[in-house]
């Protein structure tokens, strides 16, 4: 890792999904991995920027699956901890119809829920260009909450840029529990990605432009409000940007936000302009929509050239 690279810290899961229909009717499954921070690490690596993922996995085949897939993508896994007392978390995904998927998570007592400040990869963070977190990790457990804050504080202490995607999951915790913790964690970050609902969870209101400005008042110089097919609105270094979406036929929305984040951070680490960062982020999101699954849809540079210009 160098000062131009990315370190991500959080949970990763093994994924088993049906090619079509409900699991009860399936005779085979597709095997993959998931986890917001791990997906961003892969997305950044595919775009030619060094990346690492750190977390805790069980000493089991699902854990070996996660490590193998990450290493195959040239993601540094040298800071990953193996937990011999807990299993790797699982996600089971089936397709209800062409537009709706259903995911069931099996993570109670998993290795990921046992993340703690001792797992924070301080040496990796010290030499990184960006530490990226998600709002999902602090929802896993009290010790994972402490770990997320410890990682952010370690990065700030070393002058490393801290990035977060404020993701919220009803399956992990209640809104009233999440709001104060995420508010405090966002206050430690330099780059903030959020959806409109997540920003409102923190107590902000108004149009997307208002949300971007309000979140920025917590201290971040770069705030991007993701709006799905309606593009995004950003407040970057005191300037406002509207980000159009690319016209593509959507096949699977899973992983689209992670692709957006990976596109933006890859360009930030490469030192490109705010406009270039946002255009690449939108292109990555669009490409990910055209391919089923979280990992397969993350593009490389050549894939992005296949897209038309945004409207």
UniProtKB/TrEMBL annotation:
Record bears the keyword Transferase: yes
PROSITE patterns: PFKB_KINASES_2
Domain Carbohydrate kinase PfkB residues, every copy: 6-300
Keyword Kinase in record: yes
Pfam families referenced in this protein's UniProt entry, alphabetically: PfkB (PF00294)
Source superkingdom: Bacteria
Keywords of the record: Kinase, Transferase
GO molecular function: kinase activity
InterPro entries (UniProt xref): Carboh/pur_kinase_PfkB_CS, PfkB_Carbo_kinase, PfkB_dom, Ribokinase-like
Family: Belongs to the carbohydrate kinase PfkB family.
Entries under PANTHER family matching the protein: CARBOHYDRATE KINASE PFKB DOMAIN-CONTAINING PROTEIN, HEXOKINASE FAMILY MEMBER
Name of this chain's protein: Sugar kinase
């Amino acid at each position: 890792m160098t000062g131009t690279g990315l370190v991500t810290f959080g949970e990763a899961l093994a994924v088993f999904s049906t090619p079509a229909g409900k699991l009860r009717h399936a005779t085979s499954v597709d095997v993959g991995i998931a986890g917001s921070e791990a997906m961003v690490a892969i997305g950044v690596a595919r775009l030619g920027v060094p990346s690492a993922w750190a977390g805790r996995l069980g000493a089991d085949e699902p854990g070996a699956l996660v490590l193998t897939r990450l290493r195959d993508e040239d993601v540094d896994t040298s800071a990953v901890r193996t937990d011999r007392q807990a299993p790797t978390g699982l996600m089971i995904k089936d397709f209800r119809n062409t537009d709706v998927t259903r995911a069931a998570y099996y993570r109670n007592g998993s290795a990921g829920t046992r993340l703690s400040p001792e797992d924070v990869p301080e040496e990796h963070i010290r030499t990184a260009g960006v530490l990226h977190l998600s709002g999902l990790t602090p929802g896993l457990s009290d010790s994972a909450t402490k770990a997320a804050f410890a990682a952010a504080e370690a990065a700030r202490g070393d002058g490393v840029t801290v990035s977060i995607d404020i993701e919220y999951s009803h399956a992990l915790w209640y809104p009233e529990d999440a709001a104060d913790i995420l508010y405090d964690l966002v206050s430690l970050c330099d780059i903030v990605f959020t959806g409109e609902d997540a920003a409102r969870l923190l107590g902000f209101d108004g149009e997307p432009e208002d949300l971007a400005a309000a979140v920025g008042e917590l201290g971040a110089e770069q705030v991007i409000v993701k709006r799905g097919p309606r593009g995004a609105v950003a407040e970057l270094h005191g300037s406002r940007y509207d980000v159009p979406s690319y016209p593509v036929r959507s096949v699977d929305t899973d992983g689209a936000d992670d692709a957006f984040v990976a596109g933006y951070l890859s360009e930030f680490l490469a030192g490109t302009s705010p406009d270039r960062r946002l255009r690449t982020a939108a292109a990555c999101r669009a490409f990910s929509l055209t391919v089923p699954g979280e990992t397969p849809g993350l593009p490389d540079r050549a894939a992005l050239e296949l897209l038309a210009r945004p409207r």
